[in-house]
Structure formats: C-alpha cells, structure tokens
C-alpha cells in the first residue's frame, strides 16, 4: 500500500481529542494501528509491529483471543446490561468468586469498577469509610509516593506523584507523599530488586511525626512503579512499609493495575513479594484489555467493618453505572480461563532470566544511563538531550515503530512490558530492534 492510498483510507483526525498525547504533533504525522493478533499489531501501511508493551500494560494473553470475543458476544446477546444498584446478575458473582480464588489470602471481597483510575478512587473512599465506621473519622490523610501513578481521578492525582498529572488541577487537601525509591547512584543496572533503599520506607515515620498517626487513613503505592519508568522496590522496602502501617493502624493499598495478572510471575505482586495489603486495585489484565474493567480487592476486615447498621441500609454509598457489566465479567472469566489453561500467571518465572539478559544486553548502547527489570518489565533510561528533555525518548518511540516494534516511553525512559505469551525468539527480536535504533540515536 503506497502513501497516497494510506492517506485516502485514513480517518478524519480532527474530532478526536487524544488522551496523554501531543495532539498537534501526532496529527501532523499520525501512527495508526489497524489490526492485532498474538504478539503483533498491524499498521495502516500493512507492516507487522511486535508489541513490546502489551498495548498499555494490559494485553497479557496476546491480541485477538477468540475465546474472549466469543464470550462477550454470547453475553451481549443473552443479557447485554443489568443494573448493579439493588439488582444483580450471575456473571458478576461468578467473576468475583473466581478473582477471590486467585487473590492473596483474605483479600476476597471484590468491588467492580471500569478502570484503574476508578478502582483507585474506590479504594481511597473505602479507606476513609472504614475508619469512619470504626469511630476514627479523623483519619482523613491519604499518603502516596513521589513518582507514583494512580490514574487520573481527583483522588488518584492527589496521591500520585507525577507533576505533569497534577500541575493544572486541584488536588485533595491532606494528601501527602513519601519520597520515591529511585537511586541510580547506588542501584544503576540492577537486575531485579535493588539492594539499597529499604530505609526509604521510614519516610512514613516522618509523616506520622508531623501529622500524627491518628490522622492518616491509608498509604497507597505501586509495588513496582510502572508509569514513572519501572522502579522495582528495594529489597525489604515493602515489608517495612507493611510493618509500619500495621503498627500505626494505617491501611496499606497496593495499586496492582500494572503488576496484577502475571506480570511478575505470580497472579499478583503481593504474592511475588510475600506482602499482603489491606486493599488492592486492579484493571488492565483483568480482561486482557478486551473490555473496560477494574476491580478492588478488599480484606475481610475492611469489608466487614462497613457491614454495620440496619440490614436495609446501603453500607457504602459508591458505585458506577457499569460496575460488574455483564460483558466485562464474561470477558474477565474467559481471560482467567486462558491464563489458567496456558499457565500465563506464572510463565514469567520461566522467562525472567532470558528477559533480564536480553534487556541488560543493551547497556553498551549510546546514551543509556540505567537499565532496570523485574518479572516481564524493564526500563532503559537515556540521558536527556541538553535543553530538550524527552526528545530522545520520543525519537526512540517513532524510530522503533518504523523498525517494527512498539515500545512505551515516559520522558527519556523506554518502558517494556510485552504480552506474557512472548517467546525467547521474540524477546531477542524486540531487543535487537531497540539496539538498531539506539545505536544511531543522536
């Protein structure tokens, strides 16, 4: 297909205001994907593009899974929609039960949302409601972490720690932030969890000393910070954070929107690290990206604290029109069947060594200042161009796509998180494509 044909078949680009995109830059030179199957997208000009980031960290079982499409189709023709306020449908209960069976022990009360952002705001509201129900309504402070990403709701941006997501908007009063854990000086080119930095969890003690533990409702962290550029937690950090939260009566929330559903070689990062939070937010891989959905996993303690008062009273005044949507639940159940049948929730354990060797093999490429990896996640951090931060990263995105692979960028950091079905040969293909771009990068 030639360029003239490409442009003739291209849709009108004006009306769609694209999310997290430099719209003017994109529309001047658009990058359109038109089909996907397995490990590959197809571009508008007919080229195969190796998916190096599982869409947006979500297509864990690969693209075009017929089982999921068939399950959604059947469900839409049987029961396309059912209200979830004061009504129910079997699929939502079936899916919640299936999810609870995968979760760390005790995190078996499931509340459905439609995205990671909604799951985060739901979990934050649960934390506030939990303390209020126990007579500790003064616990209203919510603590996130620098470099954290927790979606785009007002709760999520308030506890999030990425400045561009916050600077133009109002944030909730009383939101505080722990210091981040990134330390390139001590931990550069670490394979797996960095050795240095567990003591940074003690930053919570500083906030407790400043405000009083009795004012703090919850701490929310990503077990592995994803959107900031794949920052694995230092050895012992999450354990220390769990210990401090327990000691001071503060709820610990893990944002597992990215790390959930096999990304680290266990169903959830909580199981990989052996640290169980009080609340856990998920989305993305819950339906393999095929249908919008999010879910909050709540502990029995949090759930049961709200099950008080008259039986006819609504215990938690919160929810969404599409909570537990029938088609989303059908997609989710079909996705879990694929994960189970193909062993995808633990497959990363088999790939981790080859993955680490392949991505760290890029260490000698120009401008590389750090490489980090854990599970089937990795980041290659580049030195920024003088007076042009982010320019190198954007060029890598564009040139790698032209060379036949899709990667994710955040500033000058390249983030990789391919579908869990990736083969050893495709790992080599992905890193070889990146090398071909990095070696000629100005």
Describe this structure in words.
- Strand 5, helix 7 (about 155-160) and strand 6 form a beta-alpha-beta unit.
- This protein is an alpha/beta fold and about 450 residues long.
- The protein has helices spanning about 5-10, 25-30, 55, 65-80, 90-100, 115-135, 155-160, 185, 205-210, 235-250, 270-275, 300-305, 325-340, 350-360, 390-405, 425-440; strands at about 35, 40-45, 50, 110-115, 140-145, 175-180, 215-220, 250-255, 280, 295-300, 370-375, 375-380, 405, 410, 415.
- The chain is built from 16 helices and 15 strands.
- Strands 4-10-9-8-7-5-6 form a seven-stranded mixed beta sheet, with helices on both faces.
- The two termini are about 30 Å apart.
- Helix 4 runs antiparallel to helix 13 (about 325-340) and helix 14 runs parallel beside helix 16 (about 425-440).
Short key terms for the protein model shown above:
single chain, 442 residues, alpha/beta, seven-stranded mixed sheet, four-stranded mixed sheet, 16 helices
Q: How would the blueprint of this fold be written?
A:
Elements (H helix, E strand, L loop, with lengths): L2 H7 L13 H6 L4 E5 L2 E4 L4 E4 L2 H4 L8 H13 L11 H13 L6 E5 L2 H18 L7 E5 L8 H6 L15 E4 L5 H4 L15 H9 L4 E6 L15 H12 L2 E5 L13 H5 L5 E4 L11 E5 L1 H7 L19 H17 L5 H13 L7 E7 L2 E6 L8 H13 L1 E2 L1 E3 L2 E4 L7 H15 L4
Parallel strand pairs: 3-13, 5-6, 5-7, 7-8, 8-9
Antiparallel strand pairs: 1-2, 2-3, 4-10, 9-10, 11-12, 12-15, 14-15
Helix pairs in contact: 4-13, 5-13, 6-12, 14-16, 15-16
